[in-house]
């Protein structure tokens, strides 16, 4: 296995939640980038959040910093979720002016991606969904979702638009909620450059088997464009250190990523509110590399166990890994 590892830059500094306005000081993007490049192992890419880390006015500076360090811009994540203008939807807002503003912003971030030699726009449309019943025209808003995604994907055919799904938060219901409906959303655009991002934690608390989600994306036409790794207890998007909770899940996930020929980034996405960010995110990278090593070593044995469909034999194999 020869995976490419990346981090989301803002994870090194943003420690707000709805109770505390910051558990630690929030460094500048430039300071976080310096920390990541100097102190974190195995980093080959950096994901930049639009408006937080990257804007038209600092593209040249950020590109030079990454180029000088020999790391790639793994993705651009447009901020359609933190701006209060989009509080009731970005490209699905019932306000045509807001929809237009959101679409123009996505175009701007796409231009930024081209300038950064980055081919992935990671679309986490966190505000595009709904909260209350009898208050939403689901059909109309999904039409807007499709039309706007199609528009930007058509205008920027050399970029890949990866739809990141999550069942809820900040809205009670998200339009991109699980793998199956996100595949549908991608397919409805009719664009060959629209696919999916799996965030492991989002998949866990969506009630999915994340390995099956990988297979679904493969069967839909190699639609898995990007991966975010973290962990949680299954009831919320806790964004914890990889392997804090799950073990077998990650062994299986790394097997199926190899089995399906995934070639994209393995990117860490977690919020170490109270932990040292460098240490916590580095732990995640080292855990994923450990799972990569396990799969490389035991690939044929794992494949045989899957064919046998014998849960006891599989249990014995997993216990052997701790010997």
Automatic annotation (TrEMBL):
<keyword id="KW-0119">Carbohydrate metabolism</keyword>
<protein>
    <submittedName>
        <fullName>Sugar phosphate isomerase/epimerase family protein</fullName>
    </submittedName>
</protein>
<feature type="domain" description="Xylose isomerase-like TIM barrel">
    <location>
        <begin position="45"/>
        <end position="290"/>
    </location>
</feature>
<dbReference type="GO" id="GO:0016853">
    <property type="term" value="F:isomerase activity"/>
</dbReference>
<keyword id="KW-0464">Manganese</keyword>
<dbReference type="InterPro" id="IPR036237">
    <property type="entry name" value="Xyl_isomerase-like_sf"/>
</dbReference>
<dbReference type="InterPro" id="IPR013022">
    <property type="entry name" value="Xyl_isomerase-like_TIM-brl"/>
</dbReference>
<keyword id="KW-0963">Cytoplasm</keyword>
<dbReference type="InterPro" id="IPR001998">
    <property type="entry name" value="Xylose_isomerase"/>
</dbReference>
<dbReference type="InterPro" id="IPR050337">
    <property type="entry name" value="L-rhamnose_isomerase"/>
</dbReference>
<keyword id="KW-0413">Isomerase</keyword>
<dbReference type="Pfam" id="PF01261">
    <property type="entry name" value="AP_endonuc_2"/>
</dbReference>
<keyword id="KW-0479">Metal-binding</keyword>
């Amino acid at each position: 296995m020869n995976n490419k590892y990346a981090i989301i830059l803002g994870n090194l500094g943003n420690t707000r939640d709805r109770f505390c306005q910051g558990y630690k000081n929030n460094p500048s993007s430039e300071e976080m980038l310096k920390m990541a490049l100097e102190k974190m192992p195995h980093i080959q890419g950096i994901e930049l959040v639009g408006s937080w880390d990257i804007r038209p006015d600092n593209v040249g500076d950020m590109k030079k910093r990454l180029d000088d360090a020999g790391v790639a811009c793994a993705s651009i994540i447009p901020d359609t979720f933190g701006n209060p203008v989009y509080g009731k939807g970005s490209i699905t807002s019932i306000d045509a002016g807001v929809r237009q503003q959101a679409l123009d912003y996505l175009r701007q971030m796409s231009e930024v991606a081209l300038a950064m030699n980055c081919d992935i726009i990671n679309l986490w449309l966190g505000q595009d969904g709904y909260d209350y019943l009898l208050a939403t025209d689901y059909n109309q808003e999904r039409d807007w979702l499709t039309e706007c995604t199609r528009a930007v994907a058509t205008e920027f055919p050399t970029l890949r638009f990866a739809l990141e799904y999550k069942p809820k938060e900040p809205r009670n219901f998200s339009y991109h909620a699980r793998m199956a409906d996100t595949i549908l959303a991608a397919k409805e655009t009719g664009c060959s450059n629209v696919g999916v991002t799996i965030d492991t934690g989002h998949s866990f608390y969506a009630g999915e088997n994340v390995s099956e989600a990988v297979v679904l994306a493969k069967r839909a036409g190699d639609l898995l464009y990007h991966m975010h790794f973290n962990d949680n207890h299954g009831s919320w998007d806790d964004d914890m250190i990889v392997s804090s909770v799950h073990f077998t899940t990650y062994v299986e996930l790394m097997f199926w990523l190899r089995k399906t020929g995934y070639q994209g980034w393995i990117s860490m996405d977690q919020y170490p509110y109270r932990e040292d960010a460098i240490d916590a995110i580095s732990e995640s990278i080292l855990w994923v590399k450990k799972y990569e090593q396990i799969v490389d070593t035991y690939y044929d044995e794992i494949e045989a166990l899957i064919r046998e469909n014998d849960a006891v034999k599989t249990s014995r194999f997993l216990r052997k890994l701790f010997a």
